[in-house]
């Protein structure tokens, strides 16, 4: 059921397990959720450093020459495939590692996978901070991407497995919150380092700090009982369960349930292939559609290139970085709003209302840019119009923050039955990172050629995905995991795929 604005696993009430929140479970979930810092920090940092003059002078001098040319319209100043490769290479590497991470987490456990991802991310941060050429920059970004891929796969699974079943959704919200914290922190650092010749090195190198925090924290927490049982370490699983549930709690029934679930899932030899069976078509479609749609709202493109965008439309360098910081703060605040209303109004309401809000803002931004800068983008934009664009993008970021932002992580954790949960999460993360790579690689060129039409492009996608939600996304609010098959069985379209005997399998979730 829904309690306190967080998604609650109502099925726990039937299990009869002690779901108290102990200091140990708070600490372990805090550390795991903080894995979102490295993803958020990178989202915020990359766009900021690409507006720093010393960074551009060293690696992308052609952009400065283009900016100084009176013949270049404002949309094309940052159109550079090498510059976009600097940003998007991380997400291609993350795509590869997220697909590998499913096997790694099964073989080594969730905790070791987070440690592994943190170490790789740390090495990438060191290389980027000391980069002397483009090759070092790209190599560093690739290593950062591998780290992000492993962390994004392992951390949400860790949170789902270690948290008391009754509070699973509440703890999962922390991952998106820490992504927002990472974005804001990165924008703040960019703002204060922008005027120094070495500022870009500090901004890139400081990515090692959240990686260190996550890695060292992971050494101090236990692996999840589910992972330990899966690998046959029953005694260690009992100790881990006792630690997070409290020393006086009888963990025997919960441990027996984990062992029963593990034995049932090990009988499924082709676990990854299972998700492609017809009866799981609804979940498979959502594994693709939800992360794909989240990125087609354009949010990460705005986050990556916000400083470039604001500088292009008339803000100075410092003002552009400050504007990006404001966007990050608005997004972070809206995530908190989402946590207080998601179980009161439901997922569908937030998807639809947030989609409409973002749609109107994107259309408004396109209209302002078209009227203020001309169709070709050659006219100067007044200070009033640049502030108006910032306000509109703040409303856009708020709409995302209380809808598609946290729901993209929440929905996959709710809809997958046990035996396709791991491949389902792998697919969702991989689709998200692949989409980010493609969009980040093409955004600046699209901005140059489509001009204000770029925002209409994303507005059209937002309209389509909002219609998709209205037609095909059932409400999951307050539905126990072991009864989740019912939302598909009762849906006007998905019911044709649902096999009623699924209930016997889903009761294991």
TrEMBL record:
InterPro entries: MFS_dom (IPR020846), MFS_STP/MST-like_plant (IPR044778), MFS_sugar_transport-like (IPR005828), MFS_trans_sf (IPR036259), STP/PLT_plant (IPR045262), Sugar/inositol_transpt (IPR003663), Sugar_transporter_CS (IPR005829)
Compartment(s) of residence: Membrane
Keywords: Membrane, Sugar transport, Symport, Transmembrane, Transmembrane helix, Transport
Top-rank taxon, per record: Eukaryota
Membrane-spanning ranges: 21-41, 82-101, 137-159, 171-192, 198-221, 318-337, 349-375, 387-411, 455-474
Ranges for domain Major facilitator superfamily (MFS) profile: 28-477
Pfam family of the protein (one): Sugar_tr
CDD domains registered for this protein in UniProt: MFS_STP
Membrane topology: Multi-pass membrane protein
NCBIfam families: SP
Family membership: Belongs to the major facilitator superfamily. Sugar transporter (TC 2.A.1.1) family.
Name of the protein this chain belongs to: Sugar transport protein 5
Native organism: Stylosanthes scabra
Gene that specifies this protein: STP5_2
